[in-house]
Known about the structure:
Layout: E1 5-6, E2 8-11, E3 14-22, H1 39-68, H2 70-83, H3 86-97, H4 102-118, H5 123-127, H6 129-143, E4 160-164, H7 169-174, E5 180-185, H8 193-201, E6 205-207, H9 212-215, E7 221-225, E8 230-233, H10 237-258, E9 274-279, H11 285-290, E10 296-300, H12 314-327, E11 332-336, H13 362-368, H14 370-383, E12 388-393, H15 399-419, E13 429-433, H16 436-440, E14 451-454, H17 456-464, H18 482-497, E15 501-504, H19 512-520, E16 525-529, H20 533-540, H21 545-557, H22 561-576, H23 578-587
Parallel strand pairs: 3-4, 4-5, 5-6, 9-10, 9-16, 10-11, 11-12, 12-13, 13-14, 14-15, 15-16
Antiparallel strand pairs: 1-8, 2-6, 3-7, 7-8
Amino acid sequence: MPATIHGVSASPGIVVGPAHLLFWEVPEVRSRVIPEEEVEAEVTRFHAAVDQALERLRAIRERAEEKAGATEAAIFDVQMAILQDVELRSRVETLIRQSLAAEKAFDLVLLEWREHFGRSTNPMMRERVGDLTDVHIRVVSLLLNLPDHDPLDLEPGANAILVTHDLTPSLTIQLDRRAIAGIATDAGTRTSHVAILARSLGLPAVVGLIDATSKLVTGDRVILDGTNGTLIPRPTAAVLAQFAARAEREKAAQMELAALATAEAVMTDGTRVTLLANVDLPDEAVPAAASGAEGVGLMRTEFLVLNRTGMPSEDEQVEAYTKVAKAFGGYPVVIRTYDLGGDKLPIGGFPEEPNPFLGWRAIRMCLDEPELFKVQLRALLRAAVHGDIRILLPLVVSVEEVRQARFLLQESAAELERRGVPFRADVPLGVMIETPAAAMSADSFVHDVSFFSIGTNDLVQYTLAVDRGNASLVTRFTPLHPAVLRLIARAVDVGRGANLEVSVCGEMASQPLMAYALLGLGIRTLSVAAPGIPVLKRIVRGVNATVAAVAARAALAADTPREAEQLLRQSLADELGEDLLNGLLGLA
Length: 588
Ligand code: PEP
Ligand code: MG
């Protein structure tokens, strides 16, 4: 049996199934010269490949329309139009007639077009780069006779384990959840967006496997252990039986915890805690509401944008936000304005930046593109008629950004007023505390916002200067670092001192020891992917607020993350008992 491949646990659960390798990257194309007498045949070969790609796109388009509806299927119309473009075809033909092999000719023209579109100042043109890339991959693969790795190829019920180098959020959304049982990637970490999405979909996932794609072939039977972060290729019957037994035990423990859905999240001394769900896609709202969440602490709206040909319209957004608000009845639903950029880009992305995580993203992009931003703000104000919607601004570093956003919010309200459309004007506005700047200067925000939401994924990344998505830095991404704990403590103290609600919606909130530290620091609202709520509730119901505060103070005074972890672990084991703690750590 080949050796176990170790990675990082991104989303718990054990699944067994056939590996499906996905290489959705432009293949390397070597230069090849065609003898003059073969040029005509090469031109014919080129057009035949394009026709074959068109045929394939037609079939995929049909399936996409069935599965996802007409709007999503329209992505493929754009790609078909590119392949039918007379100028593109004749440009490639000219290069072939100059003795270049078809794959190289097509490769060169597509590289040129992608660069040209990517540099355009027109956002619609830039959005086409993703379509050009998809077409580039598809036709070159056909011309090189490479296996077809189409991401939409899997049939429902395939129970496949998707193995790929890196899964972009847009690709993740394209995948049919009914066909995929688990995800394994070479790249990524617990806080990269593929992991976040897998967790909210409740799909077991292991990331940071480094070279799993070179150790497996499509069809290999694998065990994906999302709980421990491993991938076991071609397991023996004995190993399979062992994992099946563990999967059964985990399922039984999960069922037991799920029974807590209707129980109160209250600490042993009576302190009430509010557990909210992070929702990335509107369709997750109904199951999230059933998990016992008392509202939504973070809806990441950028997932509405990814994998589309253009930005969603105001009406489409109203529908999406209303769906979530209605699923949660009268409970609060915090909707974050677009956090696009970093690793979350719409099809085609933005112009390349040397440092995307320090670049033109999130609130910066929205304030610079007020017309785009106001479509979203108007949709939020309109949807707020149907529930307790609150607006959250991402990646804020200065209160000036909040004031500018509020100005645009007021303009949006005035526009709706003029149109005579119903809306709610007094929607609360909050900020993400996810930069050291926002945490350190938390006091400067208190008169301009109604709540703080601490985003620990970015707060850790920016405080420790550790890329949250870099698989080789996972051991250095330490949320229990004293600098991070002190910034959180500061935001909590300032927020509570000003009577603002302070919640945590980053991944720290879903990890038992860290959640315990957050409770000890005075956090009373935690927001996590819905499948993580039962574990969290069990912890809350087993610990005392004063004991947690003592443990958190000790962790704050620790010199190293490891020391803080040991102190928290000891205290939590004293509160819950060693066996229960180990069981919960295994399920988180
Ligand atoms: C965070 O940064 O902690 C957060 C919740 O937002 P995101 O993971 O979407 O960046
Ligand atoms: Mg963030």
